[in-house]
Amino acid sequence: MLFTPRTGQGDAHVDSASIMTFMPFAEVEQWAGSHNTTAEPGTRNTDYEAFKQRKAEEVLRAVVRRFPQLSDAVRGMWTTTPLTFRDYIGCPEGTTYGIQKEATAPMRTYLSPRTKVPNLFLTGQNINLHGILGVTVSSVVTCAELVGKRYLVEKIQRETGGGEVVVKG
Ligand SMILES: Cc1cc2nc3c(=O)[nH]c(=O)nc-3n(C[C@H](O)[C@H](O)[C@H](O)COP(=O)(O)OP(=O)(O)OC[C@H]3O[C@@H](n4cnc5c(N)ncnc54)[C@H](O)[C@@H]3O)c2cc1C
Questions:
Q1: Which residue from 134, 135, 136, 32 is spatially nearest to 85, judged by alpha carbons?
Q2: I need a labelling partner for 167 at 20 to 30 A (CA). Which of 15, 26, 124, 152 fits?
Q3: Could you report the per-residue pLDDT of 96-119, keeping only the tens digit for each?
C-alpha cells in the first residue's frame, strides 16, 4: 500500500509517501531480544540497520517499477519493522492488524467478547475487525454483551436519529 499524506505545504503537491508491505516476524526474530522506542531508547546492532536499509531499497525498487519518477526524488527514508510496532504498541510479533485470522475456518480464530471469567470482557481489533471502524464496531459488540443488543441498538438509533435496524438474536 502506498499513500501520500497531506503535508503543511498546501494542496498543490505532497513531499512524502508512506509505503506498507508484508514482513513476517521471522525476518526480524534474531533481534527479538532488543527493545527501542523514543521513550525507552535501546540499541539494535548494525546488522539490523543494514537489514532495514536492504529491505527499504528492495521495496523502493518495486515501487519505482510502477512510479519511475520516484527513482531520483528520494531525499531520505525512515523505516519500521514488526519490532517497531511491537515495541510501540505492545502487540506480540509486531502485528499491525491483530491476530491472524484463519479464512478457511473462521471459528478457529474467533475471540468472543465474553470470556469464561465472570465479568471479564474483551474488545478491540481481535474481536471483530481491525482498523478504526473495526474497533468501533467491536466496542459496540462488547457493550451489547453488557447492556443487551436490543437496548444498545435502539439507544444508538434514538441518539443518532437513524432508520430502522432489525436486531436478530
Ligand atoms: C502503522 C499503522 C497504521 C495503521 N493505519 C490505519 C488506518 O489508516 N486506518 C485504520 O482504520 N486502521 C489503521 N491501523 C490499524 C488500527 O490502528 C488498529 O486496527 C487499531 O488501532 C486497533 O485498536 P485496538 O484498540 O484493538 O488496539 P490498539 O490501538 O493497539 O490499543 C491497544 C493498547 O493496549 C496497550 N497495551 C498493550 N499491551 C499492554 C499491556 N500489557 N499493559 C497495558 N497496556 C497495554 C497498547 O499500548 C495500546 O495503547 C493502522 C495500524 C498501524 C500499526
A1: 32
A2: 124
A3: 888 888 889 988 989 999 999 999
